[in-house]
Amino acid sequence: MIYCKVDPSSAATNTGPGAGNGNGNGNGVNGAADANSDSNDGNGNGNSDPKHMKRVIRPDGSIELVHDPNAATADHAFRKGMMPLRDMKMKWTLQEFVDMDNQFVFKIEAQKERWIGEGGVSVDMESANHFQSYLRTFAFQRQRFGYLYGKFVDVPEDEDEKNKLPQKETLFGTELPDSEIKHFAKNQQVLVEAIYEPPQECDPNAPEGFVALDDPMEEQVEAVASLLGLRKVGWIFGHPPREKGFQMSSAEIVMAAELQIECAEDVAQTPFVTVKVTVADDGNVSMEAFQVSKQCMEMVAEEALVVGENPGFCYVSDTFTAIQEGKESRTIENNFFLTVVPINQHATETFVSEFPKANRDHDTRQQSHDEMKKQLSKSGSAGWTFIDLLADFNLLIYLTKFLDIETDIPKICRSIVNRDIPLEEGYKLIIASMAGLDGAY
């Protein structure tokens, strides 16, 4: 055994949990080990785990060991916020390390192809007008969003071109089993027939400009949409005027990616679309449509993108690395993630959009039986029929509060979708009575 003399003036003082004045114990009492100390090593020694200690130079120049539970993570973590490599696995090959590291590296590339054909997205004029009119009430200074309900329309495409597309994933030129690739038609068009505005609060301090609230009507909305042959095909938001070239904020980019992932049920190709509405310098309303890239969806799914101080950029989480134009970058300009989608308007042949919209404050009209009476009382005039006026997405959602969603609403929707199926007189009577209608309808 080798003995040596230690100069106390050069020794570091241990101030971590379990450091004491006794014989290696945590409280200096008769050398007994403190059983409750998490730094006890099980042998009666209460010394702190050296992995969780760091050296600090005190004002008098002495060195002190200070307990820091994050010391190991900060110094030895594989990446920030992750465990050290040895905590994952004791032995690593170089290739394993490289493969592991590559999972956290994104080479940023703009997506050149959109997932919607030349038909782009077409929004019902009346629905779009009601949405932008409400925004105009506040001079477009309040941000708001809604969901677009409609259909994905497949336009026939050239079969020869379709057959040229790869049908399965490949590895070194060999097709992999059970790896069929799902191809969306490039000629696919998004047809928007209605807009639903869920509960929300305007909040200028929120990154999105609003806070989405829980929607007690969510299931009813989806049920009515399904009964009408519709589905959620996109979302729409309005915002104040912005500087030229600033299309979407980082919060809006992230929300668009999350909604695309939800629609695709994966990080995958989807025709789900984002429509934004604002007012130009000349006072005219402008509408534009976009999709975010698959790479953006991947980064959002991995929580690699975060909302930072500058809304014009997406910030990269410290755990990940983004390589842009050959250099590491901690921020990515939002436009890198966007693809432009052509946008048009149409007049729906099936639905109307006259009933007041739900979840609006400071609106001159609120959903009520009186409003239902105003709408349905037009039946028999100007060519309107009772079923024409009843074919209102927001009115039907309102009716689910009073009629059974399992038995009554399906029969009403069936007559709306197929006008050859007349609405039962009993339902006409019930709805007319609710609205307070008298006489013919």
Helix/strand layout:
Elements: E1 13-14, E2 53-57, E3 63-67, H1 71-76, H2 85-88, H3 94-102, E4 105-107, E5 121-124, H4 125-137, E6 144-153, H5 159-164, E7 168-171, E8 174-180, E9 189-196, E10 200-202, E11 210-212, H6 218-227, E12 231-238, H7 250-264, E13 273-279, E14 285-292, H8 294-301, E15 305-307, E16 313-316, E17 321-324, E18 327-329, E19 331-333, E20 338-341, E21 343-346, H9 369-376, H10 386-390, H11 393-399, H12 408-417, H13 425-435
Parallel strand pairs: 1-3, 4-17, 5-9, 5-21, 12-13
Antiparallel strand pairs: 2-3, 6-9, 6-12, 7-8, 10-11, 13-14, 14-20, 15-16, 16-19, 17-18
Helix pairs in contact: 7-8
Describe the structure.
With 441 residues, this protein is α/β, with parallel strands linked by helices. Helices cover 25% and strands 23% of the residues. It is elongated and about 95 Å long. Residues 19-48 have low confidence and may be disordered.
Give the biggest sheet: 8 strands, mixed
**Uncertain segments of ≥5 residues (pLDDT<50)?**
19-48
SS content category: alpha/beta
Q: Could you give the distance between the termini?
A: 107 Å
Round the Cα radius of gyration to an integer and report it: 31 Å
Outline: elongated
Strand order of the largest sheet: 20-14-13-12-6-9-5-21
Mean pLDDT: 84
Number of helices: 13
Fraction in helix: 25-40%
How many beta-strand runs? 21
**What percentage of amino acids are in beta strands?**
15-25%
